[in-house]
Every structure is written in structure tokens, then in C-alpha cells.
Amino acid sequence: MSPSPERTPEPRRTAAFRCESLAAEARLPREACLEDALAALAKTASPLLLVGDRPVAAMDLRRAHHRGADHRSAVDAADEELTADSEDEARERLAADPGLPGLILGAAGGEPRLVARAIEPIRCAIVMAGGLGSRLRPLTDHTPKPLLEVGGDVLLFRILRSLAAHGVERVSISVRHMGDQIKRAVDDGTHFGLEASYLEEDDPLGTGAGLALLGSIDEPFFVVNGDLLTEANYGALARFHRESGRLATISTHVHEMDCPYGVVRAEGGEVSRIEEKPLLRHPINAGIYAFSPGVLEFVRHGERLEMVDFLNDTLAPRGELGEFPLVEYWNDVGTPMSFERAQIEASRL
């Protein structure tokens, strides 16, 4: 990919603020554990939760979960500095400190209010639905993977309804393998509350085909793999991405693996610790991204694009790739084992 001219950095923050009652979903009792707080994060895009009378930053909770701190009290992540005595004070502090996610008024009593930057939802999305689904054969011999049913509902339909519920209005679906079936099933998208269009791959364009086919766009957009069963909070992802000012944000899910051996920690020939059969936790690519329109400066329209290579080689070295830790349910329905698990777990969503 040829180098692109240096872009003018987008503003990292907006100067507009909003003061409103703290959402009921963002209020938790003093004794709430981290698991309770994580469940709340799936229901609200608020940048702060109020645990008892103590404010907690949503991103601190998400990162704590990814570090493996699931059984702590949610109050352990509290930050007393995330309160203000007046709306004027809150606005001044937020304007002066881009790192503040928001401030809570009335935390100690009365009706708590949140002062935070006014963030617009992301209204456009690309859903990647052109894959062969080879690992799920024979289920995908005559049905494209995104149209498989889990828990009595079609995977792609679940994704579209979730995007619409989080403010997305227009979706472009990237299709190739049995694409006509997908086009007939979704049609113009109106029965999902969306305006649907299609990006058609005549030849395979790789895992980033949606970006390669998109053309011009003047607003941020999501890219979502079409084989996911997830309750991802797209509203919270939109807030994080817009506030970061980066070109791209990748959502990550914690994957846990039991190691059957003792892991030796050593440096320079000296052993510091042996961990016997540890539980290993790794953040993995969840196949859910947010992009700013400037990312297309680095994409050659209509040419093959592998998403991971693009992120590694083009965006990460420029400091233009952020991470959004998912705490919500997530399952990549790409193998027979994950498909069977999805059939069981979908009934609980």
C-alpha cells in the first residue's frame, strides 16, 4: 500500500458538554461487586457509574475485567476526583482536562447528575458477510454463515437489530458467497429499522473487503463481522472512539486458557517465579471495529485488504489504533464447537 500524505489530526475532544440525570442503569448499591458493574456496562453508554455514593469510570472497570479482577468490589475502582460541586465547575474541569471521562454532581445525596462531553452515536456500519464458512460445513453448503440460526434467530438479523438499537441508521453489507440469499433476506433493511445497501465482491478482497469497497464517507462507522453472537455495547464503543480522536478502535474480548504445565518466569538466566498450571488470559480481536472517515486515505479502493495486516502495518505504527475492552457476551460462531455453544447460550441473551 502506497504511503498517504500526512493527515491533519482530528480534534481529540469536543467542547460541547451535556448535563443530565445519571441513568438508572448506571447506579449501583455500595456493596456491588465488579461482576455487577460489568453487567451494568452492557446496558448503558455512560462514561461513569455511581456505586453507592462513589463514582467509577466505565473504562477503568472494563480494563479491570481484562486484567482478571472479576471478584473485586466495584468500589475498589472508585475515584473521588470524578465529582464536582456545580455544573460550572464540572464544565471548566472537563474543558481543561481531556482525560476526564465526566463528572458527577450530587453523588452524596439527592438526584445524581452526569456532566460529560456530548457525543453523537455512530450512524453507519459495515457488516462483513462474504465469507465461505468452510469450517461449518455441511451447515454452510447451502446457507451462508450469517444466515444460520442460533437460538431460533438468524445471526445476521441479531446483529442488524443490535446496531439499530444503538443508533445506527445505515448499514452496508459486504457480500460474495451466496450473497443473493443475504440480499433477499435483508432486502432494504426497513424491517430491521435500517437502510441497507450492499458492497459486492466480484473477486475475494480479503478480511477488510468492506473498507476496500466502501468508497467515500464523511462520518465515523462501525465494521462488524457477520458471524458474531454478541451483546456488545456499540453506544459505549462509539463514545470511546469519538473521544479518542484516533482513526481506528478495535474491540477486544478476553480469551482464557488453562495451561497444563508449570510456566517459568525468567530473565537473563535467573528464575523469578514458577506458576503451576496457570489460567492464561489474552485479549483477542473481537471482530468489531470503529473507524473515522480519514482511515480511507490509507485504503486503495477495490484492492485486496487484509484487516489485521492493515491495522498492524498502517495504523498501529502511527498511533492511530485504540483498544475498547468488551465485557459483554461475545461468541465468534465460526466452528462447530462455538456454534453448538451459541445454540445453548443464545437463549440467555
What is the H/E order?
A: EEHEEHEHEEEEEHEHEHEEHEEEEHEEH
Q: Within the largest sheet, what's the order of strands?
A: 12-11-8-13-18-15-19
CATH fold-level label of the largest domain: Spore Coat Polysaccharide Biosynthesis Protein SpsA, Chain A
Cα separation of the termini: 41 Å
CATH class of the largest domain: Alpha Beta
Cα shape = globular
Summed up, the helix count is 9
Number of strands: 20
Work out the radius of gyration: 22 Å
CATH H level, superfamily name of the largest domain: Spore Coat Polysaccharide Biosynthesis Protein SpsA, Chain A
Q: Please mark out the parts with pLDDT under 50 across 5 or more consecutive residues, or reply none.
A: 1-5, 7-14
What is the total domain count? 2
Mean pLDDT: 87
Helical residues, percent: 10-25%
The largest sheet, given as strand count, sense and whether it forms a barrel, is:
7 strands, mixed
Strand content: 25-35%
Name the CATH architecture of the largest domain. Answer: Alpha-Beta Complex
Task: Label the structural class.
Answer: alpha/beta
